[in-house]
Each structure stands twice: as C-alpha cells, then as structure tokens.
Amino acid sequence: MVYRYLALGDSLTVGIGALFGSGFVPLYRKRLEYHLRSPVLVSNQGINGLTSDGLLSMVKYNQYLRNLISYADIITISIGGNDLIRAARSSKWNLSSPSFIQTLDICESNVREILLQIRSLKKEDESYFIRLVGLYNPMPQNEAAYHWVKQYNDFLISLTNRRVEAAPLLYAFQGKERELLFFDKVHPSSKGYRVIDEQLNQLGYTPLLQQEKSYTARKRKK
Positive or negative, the Cα torsion across 170, 171, 172, 176? Predict the structure, then answer.
C-alpha cells in the first residue's frame, strides 16, 4: 500500500532556511513511512510568500491541485504567517491597528474555507488526515506579536476534529529562537524544521494508523 502526502503552504512548506532535504516535509515523510510501514509519495506544492488568499484561490480554482487533494491521504498546511507579516508592514508595525485585526479575521475565514473545500473534494473518503502547521514568534521581544501569534494558534486548535489536528509552534520555539531560526530571523533553521517535524509527529497518525492495522490484520487472516 502506498500513501500520498500533499504539502500545501508557504515558505515553511518549501523549506526555506533549511539545508536540502531537511525541511519539515521530507522529515515528516520519513516519519509517515516509519509509522505507517508503507511507502509515501510526496507532492510538495509549497510557494514562497503564499498568503491564505492565494492558497484559497488555488484550492478553489486550480484543477491540478484539486485532483491532488482528492487523492491525498495526508495533507499538511502551513499558512498565515505572510498574512500577518504583510499586515504588520502595511500598518508600519502598529500591531493594534484595525487593519491588522481585519487581516487576521480574513485569514481565519480563508483557512476555514480552505478546509471546507478540502472536505468537499474528499467527499465520502474517511481515510485521510490534515495537519495544520501553526506559527512561532520571530519577534520574541514584542508582546503584541506574541499576542497575535498565540491568537492565531488558538484559532487553529479550535478547528481540531477527528481528521484535523494543529501543531502550535509558539511554545516549542519560545526561548530557543536563536538556535531554531535561520540567519534571516524569520524562517526556521534545519534544527527548527526538526522541531516542526516532532510537533507533527506528536499529533499521531489516526485514522491512517488504524486503517493500516486493520489492513495488516486482514492479510494475516488470509
């Protein structure tokens, strides 16, 4: 049995800041193969600079991507960071600006719609899961930045259900930013990507792991 892993999102999905092959996507693929005891084919559709608006448009109108979604067993989504960064820049880093608050609301609405679109494409498929990659705070000395990153991570956690889990990265990176961030102080370092991989690993592999156990049991009976 071969599983299909679709990675959607921004520069974190691309793996910017990591050595070749050490972004969280290839690392997580190895985790998947180990725990599911099956080969995993990866389609990395990450785009550097992608916002939630851009991802929603792709999920709604890009037929190639929609086909990938319909066949995917595992989907990871890293999105939201560029929305917040652009809003902060446009408000001249006034993180209490109404425009910043509005951007966050729009981002959350887009993420909800992305998940609805995926659910619609999956139809009656019960054997897949989605992992949402949360945000860390690249400005640890800024209390307002901490507040908004936490709020967004809390929003992702609120979306949790049997098939969707979120990996909030705020506390995993907190106090370790110097070693977990790349030289640009925005993207993770190779070590930071290993932390993201571990956070995803801690979410488990249900329902696919249950499916694999059931499949193995049926083979043994034969």
Answer: positive
In the predicted structure, residue 217 carries a pLDDT above the cut 50: no
Q: Any idea which residues carry the catalytic annotation?
A: 11, 184, 187
More confident residue, 36 or 213: 36
* Sequence-distant (≥ 6) Cβ neighbours of residue 25 within 8 angstroms: 5, 7, 13, 15, 42, 44, 46, 76
- The long-range contacts involving 54-62, CB below 8 angstroms and separated by at least 24 positions, are 55/8, 55/9, 55/79, 55/110, 55/114, 56/110, 56/113, 56/114, 56/117, 59/8, 59/114, 59/117, 59/118, 60/117
Looking at residue 181, the DSSP 8-state letter turns out to be B
Q: According to the model, what pLDDT value does residue 115 have?
A: 98
Q: Other C-beta atoms within 10 Å of 65: how many?
A: 18
DSSP single-letter state for residue 188: B
